Amino acid sequence: MTAPVTAGRRYAGAALDRVEGLDKVTGRAAYAADHRPADLVHAVAVPATIARGEVVQVDVDAMLKRPGVVAAIWHGNAPRLATSDEELAVLQSRRVAYRGQYVAVVVAETPEDAREAARTLRIEYVAEEHDVILRADHPRAYRPENVNAGHPSDTGQGDPDAALAAAPVVVDEEYGTPAEHNNPMEPHATIADWHGDGLIVHEPSQNVSGLRATLASLFGMPPGHVHVVSPHVGGGFGSKAKTLPHTILAALTAKQVGRPVKLALTRRQLFVATGYRTPTVQRVRLGAEPDGRLIAITHDAVMQSSTLSEFTEQTAVPSRVMYAAPHRRTTHRVVRLDVPTPSWMRAPGECPGMFALESAMDELAIACGVDPVELRVRNEPAAGPESGLPFSSRNLVACLREGARRFGWAGRDPRPGVRRRGRTLIGTGVAASTFPALRAPSSATVRAEPGGRYTVRIAAADIGTGARTVLTQIAADALGTAPAAVTVELGDSALPPAPVAGGSMGTASWGTAVVRACEELAARLEAAGGTVPDGGLEVTADTGREVRAQERYSRHAFGAQFAEVGVDADTGETRVLRLLGVFAAGRVLNPKTARSQFIGGMTMGLSMALLEESIMDGRFGDFLNCDLAQYHIAAHADVRDVQAYWLEEEDPHLNPMGSKGIGEIGIVGTAAAIANAVHHATGVRIRELPIRLDKLV
Ligand code: MOS
């Protein structure tokens, strides 16, 4: 055992208020779209109205005669870009790869003129047959090289088919999750402003360093000539992590018209080209002894991507980590359709994958007559079930036990459909959660001023999670000072490069760099007799070597989710009466912001379970429900009693803070816990989300 990671910590672990909280609630915090450089013009992207084919002609001349219109740009008059990324090759071809793809942009003096111009722009197309519906048996389903986050597409051990054929108890079912769309509170917006050969971009971004690199390469200039400014981000859930077509459109337009351009997407446009979660079709087979001990697990997942680029959700990856079984297999298949490219949405892979696996585990518990908490405990692996690596820490069992105690699980009657409160059928369910504890190389600078003030500079992103606050706490501890003496500057590509606020790895990655910079600064100050020189003292750290040299462990956060639901016996309406989660995610650095992350994830999981569903219209080749009136997201009245707890987990194999990521695990397993509770309430097993009333009556 190495020294406890909590030694000498004063502020990490404290429930500090957000350092920018007052600015946000008083409206002083400026978001990208608030920015108004002089001479600003407004751009509106024009989406394709066919799902596949070609743009023949765009009537630019008629458009330019309209009052207030400054420019109309399409493939026929757009500047050429240097990119092989077809998703970002905006206006570089006549081809239309999906309905909604940007085929033109119009620019006007006012947003109203630009909107009207975009609405009336005449575009001539040649349409071709399109194919937009995902099926597991689609003839074009293929095996991708690897899947999101660098996982192999397929893995296997033993002989799962033979083991399943001989297993005393077998569950063999197909599960489905629909396409879902990220809907951060702040819609995407870009303000692009060229100054000579330099480009300034104001945009909410989860990854300012990455966006700077992509823009520099596309426009053929050194990264130092691009400046991405993103101090505040109103949520992203993955949709602001990659460089998106509208950003390229804004930069290209600003270059063409020689004035700063604002391109703000409408809520409806968020449903087209900012990413979404792919629908999934998943077959899970579990073979077990009569006492529930697993002999075989197979998890085969089919997802969609676009014809432009391959994005493969890592749907079956959690099944490589969760439970022991000698015979196992996971596979991923992709179908490239005439649709937008799917992308990251909170817990990509783990979220839909664990809906299937944890629903199947509930079905196995019933088939074996074993309590579902007990079934999971019985299948705990001693080490990574596929990797064979020791877990750096794994407290799933403790989460299940603690959750069961807090929830009041003991003595649960397993029979479905027998508890009634008036017209309401009552049921309870449980599911496990998991998410990898990742870390990427980062750099950070810390500067001491005479008088005891410190400034930390890092191109991290605070997307509403509290990153700025937690980095302040981490720096205060490492410097042996109070948080009030530390200012953290982030959200700007001119700061020392840092990795994406994604994959729940922001704090682990950035925090390591901040600690190393602060340690080095403290050492140099001590060597200098403890006084800060008149000009200040500055240290930069880069964690590349440390992160790459990290010992090999299987690093994951785990959790247990418990749900109580009420289902109206006549109408089939489902209400989630209670959600209770217990998580083991290393050391929690700020209980206040962490609790918000956990209950936010669980709320999004509730929303996924009951409401969220992007419906593809086969005829038009587009999603039908492209606004919040038709794409339903849980509202306050849907979210009644959500409780999140965590175990204090000591794990010396992670990072100097001892933390695991907490941004995504809250959504993992929630939908399965709710679906399992709905089965307990009604006896109806919903294997395809969302749990709509028409599926229950
Ligand atoms: Mo998250 S989907 O990794 O931003």
Structural descriptors:
single chain, alpha+beta, Aldehyde Oxidoreductase, domain 4, 3 domains, six-stranded mixed β-sheet, disordered N terminus, binds dioxothiomolybdenum(VI) ion
Explain the overall architecture.
The strands form 7 sheets. Strands 3-5-1-14-11-12-13 form a 7-stranded mixed beta sheet, with helices on both faces. Strands 18, 19, 20, 25, 26 and 29 form a 6-stranded mixed beta sheet that branches. Strands 9-17-16-15-10 form a 5-stranded mixed beta sheet, with helices on both faces. A hairpin with a 3-residue loop joins strand 7 and strand 8 (151-152). The chain folds into 3 domains: 21-30 and 440-548, Aldehyde Oxidoreductase, domain 4 (2-Layer Sandwich); 32-129 and 187-233 and 240-273, Aldehyde Oxidoreductase, domain 4; 146-180 and 276-437 and 552-695, Aldehyde oxidase/xanthine dehydrogenase, molybdopterin binding domain (Aldehyde Oxidoreductase, domain 4). The chain is built from 15 helices and 29 strands. Helix 11 (467-479) runs parallel beside helix 12 and helix 14 crosses helix 15 (670-682). The model is unreliable at 1-7 (pLDDT under 50). The longest helix is centred in the C-terminal third of the chain and has 22 residues, at 506-527. Bound molecules: dioxothiomolybdenum(VI) ion (MOS).
